[in-house]
Amino acid sequence: MHFLRFYPSMVFVSAMLALTPAAIAFAEEPTKVDPGIMDQEDYDSSVPYAENLPSEWALAIRVALQNFPMPRSLGDIYQFQAEYLLPFQKAGVFGLGAHIGILNLQVSDRLPVDARNLGAGIHFRYLLRFMKNQLFVPTAALELTMLRIRGVDNQGWLTTTNAGVSLGVMLSLGFFDQKEATEGYLSSGLKRSYLTLEMKPQKISDPTIEIDGTSYFMGLRLEF
């Protein structure tokens, strides 16, 4: 029975990882190398070419599982994110984005677990990226999410908002295969890719919806 509960999560993660090559190969034409970049004073030929360029936008998926990695962890949550990365990136990287996902979690003793529960909102993210080809990138995000929860006996919908901060770290995949990272940029415009780990305390208390715990997210982030 435990396996059946985790099976949808496993399918979701496996499908997203399998679709990653297709997701990053959408460019109609190969990206061209700009010779002017190589002439810049801070150009570093020892790192993947794209590491010398700022990212402009990002896509990410993340998943939080019930009771994983520790008891009472909140899940199951499946979320998609899109971010615009602000052009001023001198003291780290700032991003403004939106997110949407499903929340198949217990929100109250009186309400059933329902995969039709939805959450959508906006977030402001900071990435402590201070060097090229950085292996670990700490991140923090201020998130505002509107929740749409199925009512008792499937009667109507309940809505509430949830504001909170998520903290985490991202692991650069390009760090381990720099040649592949450069080829990925030239073929699709993908500048950076990361595995992400985040934690987000969540607390909502109103007459109907009660959430109190921490969600631990793992995911994949692609920057273009």
Topology readout:
Elements: H1 2-23, H2 35-38, E1 57-64, E2 77-85, E3 93-103, E4 118-127, E5 136-150, E6 157-172, H3 178-188, E7 192-205, E8 210-223
Antiparallel strand pairs: 1-2, 1-8, 2-3, 3-4, 4-5, 5-6, 6-7, 7-8
What would you report as the Rg, rounded to the nearest angstrom? 19 Å
Work out the count of structural domains: 1
Distance between the termini: 40 Å
Order of helices and strands: HHEEEEEEHEE
> What structural class is derived from the secondary structure elements?
alpha+beta
Q: What is the CATH C level class, in words? A: Mainly Beta
Shape: elongated
Q: How much strand content do the residues show?
A: 35-45%
How would you describe the oligomerization state of the chains in this entry?
single chain
Helix fraction, binned, reads 10-25%
CATH fold assignment: Porin
Low-confidence stretches: 1-5, 22-30
Q: If classified by CATH, what would the architecture be?
A: Beta Barrel
Description:
The chain has helices at residues 2-23, 35-38, 178-188; strands spanning 57-64, 77-85, 93-103, 118-127, 136-150, 157-172, 192-205, 210-223. It has an 8-stranded antiparallel β-barrel. With 224 residues, it is of the alpha+beta class. The chain contains 3 helices and 8 strands. Strand 2 and strand 3 (93-103) form a beta hairpin.
